[in-house]
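Below is the record:
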Amino acid sequence: MILFNHDSALRNKKFLLPRIVKAIKEKNENFLNNIYKENIIKDFSHAEDICNAIYLLIRKNVNLDNLILSSSKKTKINSIIDYLLRKYNSSIKITSIPQKNKNFIVGDNKLAKNILNWKLSKNIFIAADEIYNK
């Protein structure tokens, strides 16, 4: 089974999303502008959805080598930063220009959806809110 990036409020503070939230709260424009410039694009999921899929897999008692658990969506970290800055009325100014980035992989979770009858109920923006409010 392949697990793509997933986040929750329980995630270690060393991971990217908690570091972004911390930078917003501390008004660390340097860090945010450096991350923004990198233009990171990933397939992010909410950890609760991934845990739910693993639970369904255990209950179904199947062993699949090619099962992928992901959102199957491309998400820009810059979109998450913009979302958090807008929502929490931050005075932080993003001045960096994002680099072009074509280096990303999106997972195909069709098999998990079909076999487990799995549906995503949350997204990475909900996880960002949960991390911010923790």
User: Anything to note?
Assistant: The first helix runs from residue 16 to 25. The helical segments are 16-25, 29-38, 47-60, 77-87, 110-116, 124-133. Residues 57 and 116 are 7 Å apart (CA to CA). The chain has one domain: 2-133.
